[in-house]
Batch of 2 targets.
Target 1
Amino acid sequence: MIRLEGVSKRFPGAARPAVEAVDLVIAEGETCALIGPSGCGKSTTLRMVNRLVEPDTGTVRLAGEDVAGVDPIRLRRRIGYVLQGVGLFPHRTVARNIATVPELLGWPKARIAARVDAMLDLVGLDPAEYRGRRPDALSGGQRQRVGVARALAADPPVLLMDEPFGAVDPVARGRLQVEIGAILKRLRKTVILVTHDLDEAVRMGDRIVLMRAGRIVQADTPDGLLARPADAFVAEFTGPDRALRRLAGLTVGALAVPEPAQGAPEIAWDASLRDALALLLATGSERLAVAGPAGPMSLSLAAIRQVSATDGTAPA
Ligand SMILES: Nc1ncnc2c1ncn2[C@@H]1O[C@H](COP(=O)(O)OP(=O)(O)OP(=O)(O)O)[C@@H](O)[C@H]1O
C-alpha cells in the first residue's frame, strides 16, 4: 500500500541526511509505528508520504503510484493526517472542524452533517453534546479524538499520525491508544504512526520500525523487537524492562491451556500477560482461571516464565 524505496533527504545546510536510504513497505490495513531517538528522522519519513517534504532521492509509492507525480492537494485528500495538539481551527465548532475535507470535496450539507455525527460516534463523543462546541471547551483527549474524527471524515485509506497523543495525560493516552487503535483496525486503515513512546508503539503497531540517525535499525513485530533486539542499540532503546513490555503486548489467550483451575483467581481471556503476572504476584497463586471462548482454561506462572526466558539479549 505504501512503499518507500531508497528514500533519502538532506535539509539545506545540514551536516548529515535527516533520512538515508530508507526502504519500507507498509501493507494495506497495517499499522506501522516509527520510533527512535529525537531527530532520527521519523517525522521527515512520515512527511515524505504526503509530500510535506520532498525526498532528494528514492520514490514513495501509494497503492503503486509514485506520489511525486500526484498533485499534493489531491494527494492529501487521500491521506488523513493527525498531529500532536491536532491543529483544530480554534474559532470553528467541532462539527465544522470535522467537516473540513468533506466541505472541500463539495459534499451536500445533509451528507456532511450525517458524516460529522457518525465520526463523533465513532470516536466516542456524543454528537448532540459535542458537535457545537469549540476546541477550547474540550479536554486534551477529546481534542485528539476530534482530530482523529477530522482525519477520517472523508474516509481516506491512509492515515499518518505524528505523535497523536503526545499532549494528552498518561491515563487518557492509554485509553486513546487502545480505542483508536481498535477503530483503525476495524476500518482497515493503513497507518504510519510516529511516536516517542515505546508502549504506544507496542500497543498500536502491527510492526515497529526503529530508526537511528536517519536509518532503519530494525523493523519487526512488537514481540520480535522486544524478544530479539537486532543489536545493542535496540536492546538499550527498548530498555531493561523489555520483558515486562513484551508481556504487556501479549494476551492471556496466547498462553492459556484448556484445563480448569477451580478456585484460582480469575483473569480475562483478553487481558495482557503483564496484568496476569501482576495478579499472580499479588495473590501468590501459581495459576489463574481463564474463561476461554470454548470453556474454562488456566494460565500458569510457569508458562509466563517460559515466555520471558525466551527474551533474547542482544547479540554483542
Ligand atoms: N524543515 C527542516 N529544515 C531543516 N532541518 C530539518 C527540518 N525538519 C527536520 N529537520 C532536521 O532533520 C532531522 C530529522 O528530523 P525529524 O523531525 O524527522 O526527526 P524526528 O525523529 O521526528 O524527531 P522528534 O522525535 O524530535 O520529532 C533533525 O536533525 C531535524 O533537525
Target 2
Amino acid sequence: MAEIRVLAEDPSTARVFRRFWPYLRPHRAIFAAALLANVASSAAVVGIAPAIGLGVDAVTDGDERRLWWAVALMAGLVLARMVLLRSSEVLLSAAGERTIRGLRDLVVDRLGRAPLRFIEAHRTGDLLRRSTGEISDLTLFLRDQLPNLLGFGLTVALTTALLLVYSLLLALLLLALFMPVAILVVAWFTRGAPRAFGRQAAADATMTATFTETLNAHEALVAPGRPQEWVRRFRVDNDELLRAADRTIAVQSRLELFGMIEGLATAALLLLSVWLVRAGQVSVGTVVVFVVATRNLFESMLTLSGLAGQAQLARTGLARLTDLLDALAPAGRAPAEPPAGTELLAGTELPARGDLVADGLSFGYAEGADVLRDVSVTFPSGDRAGLVGVTGSGKTTLAKLLTGLYEPDVGTVRYGGVDLRVADPDQVRARIVLIPQQVHIITGTLAENLALAPGEPDRAAMERAVELLGLGDWTARLGGLDADVGMRGSRLSAGERQIVGLLRAGLVDPPVLLLDEATADLDPDAARRLETAVERLRPGRTLVVIAHRPTTIERLPRIVRVESGRLN
Ligand SMILES: Nc1ncnc2c1ncn2[C@@H]1O[C@H](COP(=O)(O)OP(=O)(O)OP(=O)(O)O)[C@@H](O)[C@H]1O
C-alpha cells in the first residue's frame, strides 16, 4: 500500500478555492477583466437609487433642468449596467470554459498515468463522478453562478457604502438592527452546509458507482433471473441520496429568513424616515433613495443566499476534484523510501537487455495482510520459465510487481541493475510486457485495439506483427484488421483476447514477456494458435509464463513455484 493515497469520500472544503487557484492562474487576465466589468456594472446599479433621489428632489424643488439631468443619468446608468454585465458574463464564460477544458485534459492525463493500485483501490463510479460530474458542476458554477455571486456581493457592499454616505443615522440604524441577525443566519447556514453538501456529493458518487458496477454485472444478475437485485442494490443508495438531499434543502432554507428580515427592515425604516423628514433632518429624496437602496440591498442578499447554496455545492465538488488531482500529482508519486544504494534519479535509462531480478519483495493489498513475503527470484536475460502455484497464491501479483505495475512495499525489482521505481516509465513498458489473463478489449475494430500498444503503431507495423506471429489466417477469418470485435470485444473468446494481447506485445517487441495464461478452457484451435504465436515471439527474449495448463508446464524448462506468497 506504499505507493498510493486513497481519496477521501468527503474531503475538507477548507481553503479549497486557494488550493484550486493554480488551475485558474493561466486565465487570470480574463478573470481580472471580468471582475472589473462586474465591479463597474454593480456600481452602475447602485448609482440608480441616488439618480432617482436626485429626480425626486428636483420635482419637489420644481427644478425642471435638474430633473432632465437626473432622467439622463438614470438612462445612462441602466444602459451601462446592461453592457457591463453582459461583458462580464461573456468574459467569465470564456475563462471558465478554458479552465474546464484544461482540467478535463489534466484529469484524464493524471488518471492515465495513475498507479494501477490507485485505480483498483477506488470504485469506478466514484472516479467517474469526480472526473466528469464534478467538472460539469464547476462549469455551471463558473459560467452561470459566479458572475451573479460577484455582482450581487458587490451590490451589497456598494449599497451599504451609499447608505452610510446618504444618511449616517438611518444607515447605522439599519446596520445595528439587522446586521447581527443577518450574520447569525449566515453563520447558522455555514455551520451546517459543508457537512450536508459533502454528504450529498458522497451519496451521489456512491449511487453512480453502484450503478456502474451493477451495469457491468448485468449478465450475472439477469442470468439467474434476479433483475430485482439490481433495483434493490440501487434503491439503497438512491434512498441515502434522497435523505442527504433533504438535509441539504433544510440547511439551504435557513437562508430564507432574509425575506422576513427585509420586511421588518423596510417597516422600521419608513417609520423613522417620516419622523426625520418632519424634523427637517433629511429630504424626501433621501428617504426615496433609502427605500430603493434598502430594497436593492435585501434583494441582493436574498439572491446571494440562494447562490451561497450553489457555491457550497461547487465548493464540495471542487474539494473532491482537487483531492483527485492532488492524489495523482506527479510529486506525490515518488517512491516512499528509495532503497539504499539505488540510483535515485527518476527517469533513469534502462539497458536494452538485462536480467530481471526480484529482491526481498513483500507486498499487500491491505495494511498488515501481505500477499507476497520476502520473495527473491532472478530471470536471467533469455530465460524461459514458468510460475506455478494454486489459485490465490500470488502469481499474478508477483507478475504485476515484476512489470512495475505495482510498487513493492518492501524490496526491489531491478532490470539490468536499475530499480524499476526510478526508471523512465515509458521504457519500463517498452522492456517488460505483461499479457494479463483478461486482456482488455475496447469497442471497435481489431486495428483500433492494436493501436493501444505503446509507440503508436501504424498499419504496416500491425500487418508485420500478424505475419510474425503466424496469425494471418486467424485475422482473415475474423474479417481483417478492420473487423469489428463487438461491444468491449464480445465477439472474441478468452483465447482470442489473449491473441490480441500477444499481437500488442509483438508490436512493442519487448526483451521480457510475461504471459498470464488464461485459465478458461481454451478450445484446441485457440490454444494451438496461442502456443505458436508465443513460440514465434520468444526467440531471444526472456519469457515467463504463469502456467495453468499441464501441457504448458511440461514444455517449460524451469519452474518457479509460488506457495502462499513465498517461493520454493
Ligand atoms: N486488486 C486486489 N485487491 C485486493 N486483493 C487482491 C487483489 N488482487 C488479488 N488479490 C488477492 O491477493 C491474493 C493473490 O492473488 P493473485 O491474483 O496474485 O493470485 P494468483 O496466484 O495469480 O491466482 P490465480 O491463479 O487464480 O490467478 C488473493 O488472495 C487475492 O484475493
